Inverse folding.
C-alpha cells in the first residue's frame, strides 16, 4: 500500500484528531481511501470570492468582517476564498460539504469563525443581527452524509464552535454524567474517562469522530443501552438568536452561591414546558454546552445471527419486535444485508463485480459464500448486557426465538477471524469509539454517501413495503442497495446508504433522483425520515404536512419570535425565517437535480434557466 499520505492528527494536536491507539489504523484507512481517489485534491474556483451572504454587497461584507475580526482577533476569522479541499474523515473541511451532492462550490460559507467563549458566541450573534448576515453553527462538522459543515444558505458565516470550545467541563462519576462543550468528540471523551480510570461507558455512533453534543442535538444514535443520544442528554446551555443565554432543565434554577445547579445533569424536564426538544434538529439556538449521561460499565456479549434466505426479511422483523418490546434485546440491534459483509472488507466493488449497474443478488451470495459468515442474506448484529448468567439466559431466549427462521445461525466473536466486522461491533456496543465503519467508503472511487432514513413500524409487512420501494428505486437508478436497519420495539430506522462517486455528475443526479423518489413514495405510505441531508430538508419537511402544515406553521412561529432577523441557520430542517419565506429558497422535487446540473441553490429568481 502506498505510504504517501501523512498520518492524521492526534488528539494531542487537534480537538478533532484521533487517539494514539487509532493512528496506525487511521493512516491505513486514509491511505486506502485516498489512493483510489481520481478527483484532484482541489479545483480552481469560479467567480469572485468569497461567496457573499444574501442581500449583502462586497463592501458591506468586508466592513462587517472587519468588525468581526476586531471582536475575535483576525486569527479566529478565516475568509473562505481558497481552493476547496474535500479531505477525508479525520481531516475534514469546514468550508463546504465534503460529500457534495450538488456542485462542490454550491453549499459554501463566506467565512469560518472560531469563538473561544460563550461571550464570543453572543458577540457573533449580535454582529449577525446588526449586519443581517446568516450564521451557521457546527460543533465538529462531521455530519457527513447530511451536509457536513455546509450551511444551507450560501455565503453564511460558519461558526466552528469545536476548535476552541472543546473542554470536558465536568465528569461526575457518582451521577454517571458529564458536561461537554461542542468540540468534544467521542474519541476525546472516551480517552478522558479511561485516563481517569472511571468504570463508565460513553455511547458512540458507528464512527467516533463526531461531536458528542452535535450528534445528540441532531438526534443521532449509538448502540449501547444509552444509544438514543438526545434521550440521554440532560441539560443544555444555549445562546439564543438575540444573544441571550439560556439554561434548560434544572440548570434554570441557580445553584448555591452561583454554582451550577446540583441536579442539572440528573433530571431532564425540570418544571414547565420541556424546552430542550425545540433545540434539536432546529435553528432556534446555538448550544454551547450539554450534559450527557454515561452508562456504568457492565458485562456484555456481542453476537451475530445469520439468515440464509432473502425472503425471510419480514419474518425476522416480526421476531425482533416482541424481543425488543420485552427489552430482552440489550441494545438497538442492527439488521444488515449480506452486501455489507462484502463492503466491510474495505475492498472496492470492482473486486466483486465489474458488470454494469448494481451487483446482482447471486453475485453477492457467491462472494459471501467465501467470507466467514458464508452464503447468508441477512445478518443481525446484537449485544446483550449484564452478568454472565443473565446474558446466558437472554441468549437462550433470543436463540430460541430466531430458530423459527430456517437456517438461522448464531455466532460469537471467537467463532470469527480477528478482522471480521463483529469485532468492531463489540467495541461500538460497549462504548469504545472506532473508525472501522469508514471501510465501505472504498466501495466506489471518490465515494460519498447520502442517507435515506425513514421511520417504519417494526412490523414485517410495513418493513416489506419500504424494502420493496428502496429495492425498486435502487434498481431504477443503478445503485447497490446497502441497508442497515436499527430495529427497536415499535419502530425501526430503515437506513439506506447511497454510495456514489462524487466525481460523476451523472451518479450525483441519479443519487438525488433516487432520494427524491424514495422520500415521496415512503411518505405516500405514511413513512417519514428522521434526519436528512440539508439539500433534502425542504422536501422531507414538506412531507410532515398533517393539518395543512400545522407543524411547519408552529415552527415558523417560534422561529420568527426567537429570530426576527432570520440570522440563525436559515433553512435548516426546512425552517425558513420570515425574511426568507416566499422568496423561492426551498428546494423541492426535481430542483435538487437542477442544482446538480449547475443551476444553483439560491432563490428561484437567481437560479439559472
Ligand atoms: P458532528 O457532531 O456529527 O460532527 P456537526 O457538528 O456537523 O456534527 O453537527 C450536526 C449539525 O447540527 C450541524 O450541521 C448543525 O446544523 C447542528 N449543530 C451542531 N452543533 C450545533 C450547536 N452547538 N448549536 C446548534 N446547532 C448545532
Amino acid at each position: 500500500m502506498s505510504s504517501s499520505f501523512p498520518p492524521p492528527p492526534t488528539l494531542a494536536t487537534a480537538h478533532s484528531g484521533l487517539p494514539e491507539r487509532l493512528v496506525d489504523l487511521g493512516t491505513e484507512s486514509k491511505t486506502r481511501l485516498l489512493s483510489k481517489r481520481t478527483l484532484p485534491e482541489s479545483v480552481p474556483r469560479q467567480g469572485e470570492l468569497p461567496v457573499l451572504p444574501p442581500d449583502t454587497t462586497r463592501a458591506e461584507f468586508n466592513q462587517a468582517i472587519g468588525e468581526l475580526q476586531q471582536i475575535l482577533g483576525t486569527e479566529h476569522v478565516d475568509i473562505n476564498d481558497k481552493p476547496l479541499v474535500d479531505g477525508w474523515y479525520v481531516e475534514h473541511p469546514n468550508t463546504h460539504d465534503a460529500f457534495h451532492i450538488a456542485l462542490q462550490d454550491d453549499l459554501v460559507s463566506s467565512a469560518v469563525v472560531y469563538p473561544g467563549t460563550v461571550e464570543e458566541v453572543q458577540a457573533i450573534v449580535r454582529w449577525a443581527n446588526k449586519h443581517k448576515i446568516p450564521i451557521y453553527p457546527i460543533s465538529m462538522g462531521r455530519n457527513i452524509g447530511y451536509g457536513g459543515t455546509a450551511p444551507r444558505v450560501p455565503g453564511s458565516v460558519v461558526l466552528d464552535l469545536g476548535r476552541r470550545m472543546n473542554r470536558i467541563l465536568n465528569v461526575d462519576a457518582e451521577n454517571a454524567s458529564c458536561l461537554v462543550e461542542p468540540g468534544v468528540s467521542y474519541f476525546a471523551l472516551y480517552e478522558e474517562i479511561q485516563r481517569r480510570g472511571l468504570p463508565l461507558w460513553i455511547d458512540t455512533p458507528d464512527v467516533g469522530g463526531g461531536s458528542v453534543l452535535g450528534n445528540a442535538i441532531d438526534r443521532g444514535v449509538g448502540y449501547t443501552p444509552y444509544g438514543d443520544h438526545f434521550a440521554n442528554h440532560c441539560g443544555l446551555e444555549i445562546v439564543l438568536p438575540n444573544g441571550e443565554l439560556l439554561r434548560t432543565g434544572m440548570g434554570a434554577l441557580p445553584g448555591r452561591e452561583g454554582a451550577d445547579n446540583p441536579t442539572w445533569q440528573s433530571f431532564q424536564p425540570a418544571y414547565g414546558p420541556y424546552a430542550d426538544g425545540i433545540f434539536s434538529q432546529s435553528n432556534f439556538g446555538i448550544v454551547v454546552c450539554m450534559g450527557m449521561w454515561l452508562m456504568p460499565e457492565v458485562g456484555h456479549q456481542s453476537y451475530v445471527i445469520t439468515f440464509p434466505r432473502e425472503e425471510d426479511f419480514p419474518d425476522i422483523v416480526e421476531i425482533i419486535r416482541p424481543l425488543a418490546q420485552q427489552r430482552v434485546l440489550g441494545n438497538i440491534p442492527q439488521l444488515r444485508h449480506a452486501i455489507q459483509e462484502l463492503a466491510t472488507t474495505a475492498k472496492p466493488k470492482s473486486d466483486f463485480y465489474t458488470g454494469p449497474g448494481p451487483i446482482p443478488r447471486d453475485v453477492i451470495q457467491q462472494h459471501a459464500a467465501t467470507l466467514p459468515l458464508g452464503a447468508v442474506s441477512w445478518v443481525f448484529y446484537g449485544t446483550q448486557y449484564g452478568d454472565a448468567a443473565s446474558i446466558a439466559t437472554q441468549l437462550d431466549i433470543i436463540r430460541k426465538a430466531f430458530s423459527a427462521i430456517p437456517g438461522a445461525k448464531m455466532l460469537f466473536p471467537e467463532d470469527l477471524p480477528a478482522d471480521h466486522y463483529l469485532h468492531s461491533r463489540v467495541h461500538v456496543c460497549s462504548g469504545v469509539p472506532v473508525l472501522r465503519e469508514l471501510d465501505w467508503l472504498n466501495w466506489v472511487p471518490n465515494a460519498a454517501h447520502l442517507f435515506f432514513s425513514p421511520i417504519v413500524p417494526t412490523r414485517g409487512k410495513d418493513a416489506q413495503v419500504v424494502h420493496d420501494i428502496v429495492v425498486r428505486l435502487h434498481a431504477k437508478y443503478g445503485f447497490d442497495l446497502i441497508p442497515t436497519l436499527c430495529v427497536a420495539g415499535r419502530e425501526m430506522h430503515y437506513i439506506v446508504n447511497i454510495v456514489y462517486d462524487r466525481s460523476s455528475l451523472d451518479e450525483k443526479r441519479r443519487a438525488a433522483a433516487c432520494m427524491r423518489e424514495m422520500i415521496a413514495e415512503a411518505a405516500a405510505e405514511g413513512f417519514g425520515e428522521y434526519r436528512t441531508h440539508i439539500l433534502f430538508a425542504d422536501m422531507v419537511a414538506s412531507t410532515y404536512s398533517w393539518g395543512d402544515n400545522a407543524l411547519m406553521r408552529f415552527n415558523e412561529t417560534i422561529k420568527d419570535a426567537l429570530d426576527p432577523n432570520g440570522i440563525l441557520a436559515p433553512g435548516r430542517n426546512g425552517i425558513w425565517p420570515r425574511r426568507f419565506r416566499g422568496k423561492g429558497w426551498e428546494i423541492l422535487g426535481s430542483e435538487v437535480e437542477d442544482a446538480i446540473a449547475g443551476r444553483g441553490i439560491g432563490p428561484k429568481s437567481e437560479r439559472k434557466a
